[in-house]
Amino acid sequence: MSDKTEKVTPEVLDEHGDELIHVPTGQSRLRYIATIGLVLFLLIIFVVADLFQSSLTGGGGGSDEIFLTWQDPADGEKHEVKESEFFETARFLSNMAAFGIYTPYSLIFGEQTQKRSSRPEPTEQDVASFLIYEEMAKDAGIAVSDQEHIDFLRSRFGSNEGLEAAARQARTTRLAISEDARRIERVAKLNGLMFSTLGIPDPDAVVKTWQEGRPEFKFQSISVNRDDFLATAEAEVPDDEALATWFHERPDFEQRKLYTEEKVVPRVAYVVPGDDFDPAKLFEAYPAPEGVDLDQQAQSYFSQFRTTRFKAPEKAKPEGDEEVAEPDEIPEKPFYDFEEVEEEVRAEAPIHAALTAFVTDMQDRSAEGATVDLAAEAEALGLTVVEGGEPMTREEMTAADTWGSAQIASQLAFSSANAIVPRVTATPDALVVAQVASKIERAEPPFEDIRDQVATLWAEQRAAELAVESLDYLRQTLAAKPDDVENADWTPEIAWIDLQKAAGEAGYATYDRPWLERSAMPEGQTFQTATPVNRYMMMTPTVYDMEPGTVGPAAKGSDGKTAFLIRFDSQREKDVSEIDANTVFQLRGQAANEQLREFGAQVLLGDGAWLAERAAIRFPKNEAREAEKKAKEANPTAG
């Protein structure tokens, strides 16, 4: 320790005489005093924390000032609670919440939400409500019997040992927890008696709630197929220049439907396992790694290629008058078991492993910039090579003899030019290694080659438009459209009988849809199998917002082929005969819970309607602080 520490003497303390604030030499006195004032202000704002919140964690003992006032809801007697008593109760409730003995009313019936990994803390209103109901329970003579108390503690802690462990953890005693729990139990008993006054939910109200949540809707529709207008549309097809312009304005995915198909010139090498293939050269070039587990290799190969290489032959179907065997007499066995083809598996698995090493080697050398000649290398290893053919489509590669399959066709199509297909592919006849020799990408053909197809697309779209226009015209023959209303916004009221008559004269189909809930489909239909009009109503919620008896604008179905008018007939409650006993039981439970929640919110919350009116809860100190705050906000320069 340094021995140069100066002692503070009375003379030093009095060095600056009567100065209240000593400003260091060279500092502006005004600026220095203003800085000190700012620091003191910040200290007041951030250090003087909310007394109530600090009290929950043991800080802020409170004073003898009146913090809460209320009157007895029964006789109107006035009550006052000092700040110290209020904060002590707040800490008590917080501790009980930590034990799981108490849950704040605001968390059960109010808007407070419990944060994760934290115990529920009571609000000021929760504390006030507890104090009021505790006093009411005492006045009513409500007591908790010893047996009730024991049962309560056992339900929370399980045993004396559990209670002792909780006490140790909270650094208190079993007796303290027991006595505090009685306070909670007494108030809970009073609350339980209050809730017992609630009646059973009205069955009619329960059914009414069920009906209101499941309204049924009635719709009618008129529909027409675009094919009825196709001849008219074909007669309107524009010249080639306009047609080509129209085609090139279509979405890209539509244009690509008429592009030429992608083609690949494959370079293929394959092995047909069996007596005719000698793998000696292949094994010499790509020997098996030392210590390879041949049993595991065989099992892995069989699992990977069982469905491709080891299919069981299909049973011949009886012809003519031959007796048909019963289903249980025909064993279902699409693939051989390992034991039945073990010899073939053990012969093929090492070949597949060597071919895989061959492919990996070629890929590695290609990645390093070397030129890889699959055909020459494969031929030197004894493989059969196919190259130099015409460009092939996926379909043609799939159907190719011996080496063709959907898998190899897909891999070749997704590989770039000169790329080695990254894995050995198995077909029913061979093990295949492949490379893309060259590739012809999809492209738009000369317009004259697709002109007729484009004309067909144009006519189909125009026919669909004509179908929509014809239905909108029919609407306007039955109701006068105001000039200042757009067709899309016009939903005139038209009687169904008039709509049916007009549709019949025009040769259009009519449909009287059954009463259905909003998300329901007619019997026998799903979203995938639904008619265009039913699918449209499922996908278009605005039809349910129409007024009864009105008809919306003509619309085109998602199939692109059907146009229809939708008429909203009416809405009704679902027939009560369709409700089952189990649903009624569930709804009664839900209604009872809602009834309890509403009652608790009104009666138990400190700021609920009943206590606010009957108990006249007030927080004088908080009110004074809030009034002072508002005054300062209204006149910030004062003081």
Count of strand segments: 12
**Largest sheet composition:** 6 strands, antiparallel
Structural class: alpha+beta
State the helix count. Answer: 25
Low-confidence stretches: 1-23, 32-57
What fraction of residues sit in β-strands?
A: 5-15%
Percent helix: 40-55%
Average pLDDT number: 84
Shape: extended
Question: Gyration radius, to the nearest Å?
Answer: 44 Å
Q: How many discrete structural domains?
A: 4
State the distance separating the first and last CA atoms. 49 Å
Provide a descriptive summary of the structure in words:
The protein has 639 residues and is α+β, with helices and mostly antiparallel strands. The chain folds into 4 domains: 10-47, no CATH class; 52-198 and 593-634, no CATH class; 216-234 and 448-572; 261-314 and 325-440, no CATH class. It is built from 25 helices and 12 strands. Strands 3, 8, 9, 10, 11 and 12 form a 6-stranded antiparallel sheet that branches. A 4-stranded antiparallel sheet has the order 5-4-7-6. The protein has a two-stranded antiparallel sheet with strand order 1-2. Strand 6 (425-426) and strand 7 (431-440) form a beta hairpin. The two termini are 49 Å apart. This is Periplasmic folding chaperone.
Task: Provide a quick synopsis of the model.
The chain crosses the membrane at residues 30-49. The protein is an alpha+beta fold. Helices cover 48% and strands 10% of the residues.
Helix-strand blueprint:
Blueprint: H1 10-13, H2 29-47, H3 51-56, E1 66-71, E2 78-82, H4 83-98, H5 105-108, H6 124-139, H7 146-157, H8 160-170, H9 174-196, H10 203-212, E3 216-225, H11 230-234, H12 240-248, H13 252-256, E4 263-271, H14 280-285, H15 294-309, H16 342-367, H17 374-380, E5 384-386, H18 394-398, H19 406-414, E6 425-426, E7 431-440, H20 447-478, H21 496-506, E8 509-512, E9 516-517, H22 532-539, E10 550-551, E11 555-556, E12 562-572, H23 581-603, H24 609-614, H25 620-634
Helix pairs in contact: 4-6, 6-9, 7-8, 10-23, 12-20, 15-16
